[in-house]
Each structure stands twice: as structure tokens, then as C-alpha cells.
Amino acid sequence: MDVTGLIDALFAHDVQGQALSVPWSIDYFSVVVGALTGALFACDRKLDIIGTVVLGLLTGYGGGIIRDMLLQDRGVYFTSHPDLIVICIAICVFVFYFRGLFRHLDATVFFADALSVGLFALAGASKAFACGEGFVLSVILGGITAVGGGAIRDICVGETPGIFQQSNFYAVAGLGGSFAFVALAYAGCPLPIAGVACVFAVTFLRYWSVYFDWKTASEADLTPHVARGVGKVLRVAEGVFLHGGDATARQRRLPRLLRRHATSGRARGEGRARDRADAALESEGFDACSRADGAAARSGAGSPDASRACGDRVREEVVRDDGDADVDSASCRDSSRD
């Protein structure tokens, strides 16, 4: 049994085949609003009267045509209501010649568009549910019906469909409403209540996404987070289940401890050499540097940098002498041992 079969078995109720009778006025309203938004879109893109009418019809009917072609059952809604086609053409022509009337109706048009998306989702999900397409396909066909017209409209003007870009919830709202309807229908809820829940879910998701500025993510890469998590799990498993965590940790810490010990030893050796150089500077090189500073001061060319350089030279000579002395003493010890 595939995944869709398992989901359908989860909602094992004898409810498939039931049809939600939606009043013709609601279907007409959703198609008319879709044609209106498509015509306004065409006017914004500076298309002519033909382009405005075509985009209006594609926006109003596109999602339903895709749904009916996929279902291949109960005819095509576009060809079943020729009177609605005439109404949509008349609305597109009106929008083209009187577009100025809609410039101050952005809020009204947005509300009508959100409501029409909800009605389209309801029409697609309810028809797929009535045809017995199952839970998953009913949700998908509801989402396609809700946003298919807008995607075709964007493609016709050479743009990437808005549902494929980072934006406020549009396709997400359509899928959410379709899911609400199908889930309630499979749960045995009366279909009219499920239809109302679908429209409300789409409308509120659309409004909330705009109000709270919720947007879909354009890119996401969880690889670094997953890699860190897997690394931690592997380390824990190595220490707990393989019983080698302590030894492995000691082996990993050993090179660091050796390097730290060698570094500290070198630092201590350099510190002792520096102390001997300072003592020798005080005893042997102080008079020479003082004489050099006095001569430079009498000539007017003395400076703190010069005296500091003199002290550094004396210190280097003393350190070099100490190193040679250490080497000589070591060679003497070796020869005496031989």
C-alpha cells in the first residue's frame, strides 16, 4: 500500500462520492473576481484590449481548466457556462477603458481576490473529493485550482509565477484551505461547514501573511546544522556504545598537551636567557652604553631609541655567549664521558 493509500485508510469513512452543491452565484463570483484581477494585471503591464481580455479569462478559468483536464470527468467548467464567458469579457473591457475607477479600490480588490482564491480552492477540492480522488489528490487539486490561473497569467507575460517566489502566503493559503476542507469532509463534518472553513482559512491566511509580513523562504540550507548535530551524535555514540570514548579523547588531547608543554618549555628557556642577559647588561654593558649615551648627548645626537638599541645589542651578545657556553659545556661533558 502506498502513502496515499495509508492516508486514505486513516480517514476510513464512507464519505467519498458525496458532492457539495455550491450555488451558481458563488461560482460566478469567484470566476468574475479572477477575471477582474487578471484585467487589472494586464492594465499594469500596458497590454492592449486583446491582451487584457485574454489575461482576464486565463486568470478566471486557468485553474479550473487544469483541474478538469487532470480529472477527465464531468466535463470542463469553462465550456459548460458560455454566459459566464460573456460576462467576464464585458468586465475585462470595462476595466480596460475605466481603469481609473480601480486605482483607489486596492483594499476592496485585495479582499475580493483573497475571497476568490478561497472559493477556487473550495471548488477544486470539492470536485476532486466528489470524484473520489482521495485525500492527497483532493488537496493538491484544490491548491492548483486556487492559484493555477495566476501562474498561467504570469507565464504569459514572461514573468516567473509569483507562487514560485518569496512572497506572502498565496499558494500556501490555497493549500491550507483545501486541506481544511478535505480533512473536515473525511472526518464526517457536513460539507457546507467544511466549505465555509475552507474559505475562511484561505482568507485569514492571506490577510495574516500580509499583516504580519509572513513570507515563504527563498532559500534555506540546513547542511551545516545537520552536520554539527550528526558530529555530536557520533561522538556521543563513540564514547557510550563503543566504550572507547575516554581513550580516544586522551589520544586526541595528547598532541595538544605535548605541543603546549613544548611551547611552555621554550618560553621558560627564553625567559631564563633573557634574565641572564639583563644581569650581564647591568654588570658588563652598563658602562659601555653609558659612555656611548654620554658621548651622543654631548654631540647632540642622543635619543632613547639609540640607548635602547645599544642595550639590545649587548643583550643579544650575552645570550649568544651563554648559548656558546652551554654548547661547550655539553661537549665537555660528552668528551669526559667518553
From TrEMBL:
Its main location: membrane. Residues 26-98, 111-184 form the Glycine transporter domain. Keywords: Cell membrane, Membrane, Transmembrane, Transmembrane helix. GO terms for cellular component: plasma membrane. It holds the Pfam family Gly_transporter. Residues 310-322 have a biased composition (Basic and acidic residues). PANTHER family: INNER MEMBRANE PROTEIN, UPF0126 INNER MEMBRANE PROTEIN YADS-RELATED. This is TRIC cation channel family protein. It comes from Rubneribacter badeniensis.
